[in-house]
Specification:
Belongs to the metallophosphoesterase superfamily. Purple acid phosphatase family. This is Purple acid phosphatase. InterPro entries: Calcineurin-like_PHP, Metallo-depent_PP-like, MPP_PAP, PAPs_C, PAPs_N, Purple_acid_Pase-like_N. 21% of the residues lie in helices and 29% in strands. By secondary structure, the chain is an alpha+beta fold. β15 (235-239) and β16 form a beta hairpin. The longest helix is centred in the N-terminal third of the chain and has 21 residues, at 2-22. The chain is globular. Bound molecules: 2-acetamido-2-deoxy-beta-D-glucopyranose (7 copies) and fe (ii) ion.
Length: 447
């Protein structure tokens, strides 16, 4: 009996398994983690997404009134996670060309054979002189406790923003659970990042396996027209009257991945700033705005760098002993106007500051100031909660510890408006300022 049963079972199993060999295994190819980013000029938009199986087609169907009359194809690259499961993900990147400035496009992405995403839309970057660039700026948003995300989604989908700057630290962390936390995060931010460009710089939470998750999943523009990879560490783009630079403060801390990355980035920054300062370029993009994760100045009481040095000294003055590759001088020398930071889970606005000294403008602190303005905005919400404040320093103008994010409107060559939104207080604006400049360029001590 036992033998007969065994044979029967074997026969049934054979039939079942041969059936699954004869019929094709279904392949799950649904696009996920969809997000967009700006290219090097207003006529481009980059669409990036992930499939969890190897789908070899990367297609975006898009259009204006006739929704899918245009079709663009791109490339897929394999990302292998370094966790124990060695999971693979397939990263699809498609560049949309020749977009009409200011035109709204509908799109979905995927492939004919393996399915399409939901329908999304974006507005191609405007290039007219009336373009007010409305930006959301924040850092330190996790998969868990992403408290600002619903409000950001509401404002994004109702058309209040043109782009997002995420100033490092995301997911907490992208590598955890064999990269599934990163997948969850990327899927969660689809509600904003599939509609407006989501421009990023890396934070310390992205450091796992040499920043490989971060490098694989975003698509920041390089100067030679490629997207993603190393350009996710440092890059620049123009939007309206602003030249925006994203860079890595983390090269200075995770030197086990290569000291040369500090030098390479510094050289690139200097070159990029030089170009941005040619009279022609500075006339077109008078504002130079940077974003990097770890702040040159901070007054939080749970961070030894803030307590002992008032900020991340290595970023500000350079590597210990040799004092090289510091960014405060470089940025002041080329007249950077505004510097965004995060890492501290709070909001702090500084008076115009250089070398720990306040350089207010003569007609008002932020009217033609003689130093860059620093804003630290790292309170979007994550499972590490808040960072409290300690002793106030003379350069610290305003501090707030609610969850929230910054809104920045770049009006024209002379006016930028900034405000801090508190999510704890249901969207109340808890701080605001105008930065007004009649001229842009190197500060007086560099002329
Ligand atoms: C994609 O291409 C690879 C390599 O050529 C192949 O192994 C895989 O089966 C292809 N995927 C699909 C869904 O056709
Ligand atoms: C796809 O790869 C080809 C060849 O490597 C390259 O020329 C092209 O720019 C890539 N396209 C995208 C969207 O990255
Ligand atoms: C904006 O883009 C349109 C279409 O590409 C072009 O014709 C126009 O000259 C551009 N305007 C400016 C101010 O660059
Ligand atoms: C880390 O990645 C960068 C490129 O993103 C590469 O240049 C560097 O060699 C890598 N470092 C190590 C130790 O693998
Ligand atoms: C910064 O200020 C200190 C004095 O507080 C001075 O010794 C130093 O030379 C200044 N550095 C620069 C680059 O101006
Ligand atoms: C800068 O301006 C602000 C606002 O007017 C003022 O409170 C602060 O004391 C000024 N700081 C210096 C050093 O002048
Ligand atoms: C720039 O924008 C500000 C704020 O809207 C406005 O007050 C100012 O007049 C504008 N300047 C020019 C030159 O348009
Ligand atoms: Fe951080």
């Amino acid at each position: 009996m036992a033998l007969l049963h065994g044979t029967l079972l074997f026969t049934i199993l054979s039939i079942v398994s041969s059936r699954s060999i004869l019929t094709d295994d279904p392949i799950f190819g649904q696009p996920e983690q969809i997000h967009i980013s700006y290219g090097r000029d207003p006529t481009l938009m980059i669409v990036t997404w992930v499939t969890l199986n190897q789908i070899n087609e990367s297609v975006v169907e898009y259009g204006q009134d006739d929704m899918f009359d245009l079709r663009a194809t791109g490339n897929v690259s394999i990302f292998q996670d370094s966790g124990s499961e060695k999971r693979r993900e397939y990263i699809h990147r498609v560049v949309l060309n020749n977009l009409k400035p200011g035109q709204r496009y509908f799109y979905h992405c995927g492939s004919d054979d393996f399915g399409w995403s939901s329908l999304y839309w974006f507005t191609a970057m405007r290039n007219d002189s009336d373009f007010v660039v409305r930006t959301a700026v924040f850092g330190d948003m996790g998969r868990d406790n992403a408290q600002s995300l619903p409000r950001l989604q509401e404002e994004t989908q109702s058309g209040h923003f043109d782009l997002i700057l995420h100033v490092g630290d995301m997911a907490y962390n992208m590598d955890i659970d064999n990269a599934r936390v990163g997948d969850d995060y990327m899927n969660a931010i689809e509600s904003i990042a599939a509609y407006i460009p989501y421009m990023t710089c890396p934070g310390n939470h992205e450091n796992a396996y040499n920043f490989s998750q971060y490098v694989a999943k975003f698509s920041m523009p390089s100067s030679i027209g490629t997207y993603g990879g190393d350009s996710n560490h440092f890059y620049s783009f123009n939007v309206g009257p602003a030249h925006i630079i994203g860079f890595s403060t983390e090269f200075y801390y995770y030197t086990e991945f290569g000291f040369d990355q500090i030098f390479n980035q510094y050289q690139w920054l200097e070159q990029d700033l030089k170009e941005a300062n040619t009279p022609k370029n500075r006339a077109q993009q008078p504002w130079i705005i940077t974003m990097g994760h770890k702040p040159m100045y901070c007054t939080n009481s749970d961070d030894t760098d803030c307590i002992n040095d008032g900020g991340y000294t290595i970023i500000r003055t350079g590597l210990p002993f040799i004092e090289a590759y510091g960014l405060e001088n470089l940025f002041a020398q080329y007249g950077v106007d505004l510097e965004f930071w995060a890492h501290e889970h709070s909001y702090e606005r500084l008076w115009p500051v250089y070398n720990e000294t306040v350089y207010n403008g003569t007609k008002g602190a932020y009217i033609d100031p003689d130093a860059p303005v620093h804003i630290t905005t790292g309170s979007a919400g994550c499972d590490e909660r808040h960072d409290p404040f300690g002793i106030r320093r003379p350069w610290s103008a305003f501090r707030n510890n609610d969850y929230g994010y910054t809104r920045m409107n770049i009006y024209n060559a002379s006016h930028i408006y900034l405000e801090q939104v508190s999510d704890d207080q249901h969207g109340k604006v808890v701080d605001n300022m105008w930065l007004i400049k009649s001229k842009h360029g190197p500060y007086s001590y560099f002329e």
